[in-house]
Design a protein that fits this description.
463 residues, alpha/beta, 7-stranded mixed sheet, two-stranded antiparallel ribbon, elongated
């Protein structure tokens, strides 16, 4: 054997030994990871069993969280959250893992938000809901199964979260949030997620958070909707076509809160889906609102397509995670050009009023906020003229030209309808006025009267 052949053999032997060593190390590391995971699984099972069988007092959340995290292998945490670390970085994930989120309402929206917050690293989650799992909950709830029917919703979520992330401290409260003592359930929260169905309780919670400087994200109406492409995040002041958002927005406005609350909602105009009917015998028991366990909580419910509240919950958790990480969604996309639409509607109304009065008008008694109220809240973005289509070219104009222009004497029409109305009703310069009911009929006049009364009721509240 010559020198070169001997050298080649030595190199081959060394390479083979190195590969064998690397293989052994890889196998050993894989084995130890499997063992740690197996031990972790056993620990989780023992922990859940101990929790269910123990009546010992629960330690403060801060203490429990520190113990839980320190008892968990940090390498495993980072491995489980590897994709999140890649996205947010060490600094962002440090903030998320210190985050404390309180979820009020743990149904279809809240349960999915809780699962994704836990999967993404949030280490403290408080769940608040008085309700129990029913069979009908199973079409949309993130964690409930058949064996959970009849048990508290918060308990089913807690059980699942502990299987997902061993380090997460879950504080389950089988309670209803009430403004009189609301601070107790919101204590220590970095973010509050409102997933409440009841309008008044939702408004009370949002008002409380606003007044006390608590960051809150609110979920609007996922019921009776089916188009996921219409779901988006915006400020409460920019919501349209969502009946629940409209009611919440108007009530908050009366309480002095006009903006500053991010929400997830759908721009899908509700179709023909209505409240499920109640049997006659239920009405015979007394007023429907008294049939529930709590005042003002719905007895009849809207049908829900399961995926929609799930998507709402995922939107909510995404927004909160980005905020916690210090990488917020800087400009949540409101409806494109909405402000420009209001400006155009106001400018067009000014032009029409100038033609109607025959005088130069510099300022109308209606501003952009009034335009939003008229167009979005009162007329729901639809023409006053049957079949009440969404106008391709919407116009605001005075309904009864013999009366001054006011919010309750201003309606929405399609451009062609508005032109017909203006020509038929006359102008002040001509000195003739035509009753609009002779043009559109009594049915339309009744709608106008109802909506005018709606405006007046709201204005009384504001004053």
């Amino acid at each position: 054997m010559n020198f070169h052949s001997h050298k080649t053999q030595l190199i081959a032997t060394a390479v083979g030994a190195s590969l064998a060593t690397a293989g052994l190390l890889t196998a050993y590391n894989s084995y130890t990871r499997r063992e740690r995971r197996r031990n972790l699984n056993d620990e989780v099972i023992r922990s859940i069993a101990a929790k269910e069988s123990s009546n010992a007092p629960t330690p403060p959340p801060e203490v429990a969280q520190e113990v839980r995290v320190s008892a968990y292998d940090e390498d495993l945490i980072r491995e489980q959250l590897a994709r999140n670390y890649a996205f947010f970085g060490d600094d962002g994930m440090s903030k998320i893992r210190k985050g404390r989120v309180v979820i009020i309402g743990c149904g279809g929206v809240g349960s999915w938000a809780a699962v994704m917050l836990a999967r993404s690293g949030v280490s403290y989650i408080r769940l608040v809901d008085f309700d129990y799992v029913t069979l009908s909950s199973l079409n949309r709830h993130a964690t409930a199964g058949l064996t959970d029917v009849g048990t508290p919703k918060v308990n089913t979520i807690e059980k699942t979260l502990k299987k997902i992330a061993r380090w997460v401290e879950v504080d389950s409260r089988i309670e209803i949030w009430r403004k009189e003592e609301g601070g107790l359930l919101l204590e220590g929260a970095d973010w509050v997620l409102d997933a409440i169905d009841n309008i008044q309780t939702k408004v009370d919670l949002l008002k409380y958070c606003h007044d006390h400087g608590l960051k809150v994200f609110s979920s609007m109406g996922a019921s009776a909707k089916c188009d996921p492409t219409r779901i988006q995040i915006s400020d409460i002041s920019n919501t349209i076509y969502d009946p629940l958002a409209r009611s919440v927005r108007r009530r908050l406005r009366l309480l002095g809160v006009t903006s500053g609350i991010p929400v997830v909602y759908s721009t899908e105009v509700p179709g023909d889906v209505k409240l499920l009917p109640l049997p006659d015998e239920e009405f015979e028991k007394g007023p429907v609102k008294e049939l529930g366990v709590f005042d003002d909580f719905r007895v009849r419910i809207l049908p829900v397509l399961g995926p929609l509240p799930c998507i709402f919950g995922l939107h909510a958790s995404t927004y909160i995670l980005c905020e916690l990480a210090g990488k917020p969604i800087l400009n949540p996309l409101a409806i494109r050009g909405r402000k420009k639409l209001y400006e155009r509607l106001l400018r067009d109304l000014l032009h029409r009023e100038t033609k109607l009065t025959g005088q130069v008008i510099n300022k109308l008694p209606i501003d952009e906020e009034d335009v939003s109220l008229i167009f979005e809240d009162i007329h729901r973005g639809r023409s006053i003229i049957p079949p009440h289509n969404v106008p391709a070219r919407p116009v605001l104009l005075r309904w009864d030209v013999s009366r001054p222009l006011t919010v309750d004497n201003c309606v929405v029409m399609e451009y062609g309808e508005a032109e017909k109305h203006s020509k038929a009703c006359g102008t002040q310069e001509e000195g003739r006025f035509v009753d609009p009911r002779t043009i559109w009929g009594d049915e339309v006049q009744e709608i106008v009267d109802r909506r005018a009364e709606e405006v007046r009721r709201e204005r009384q509240w504001v004053m």
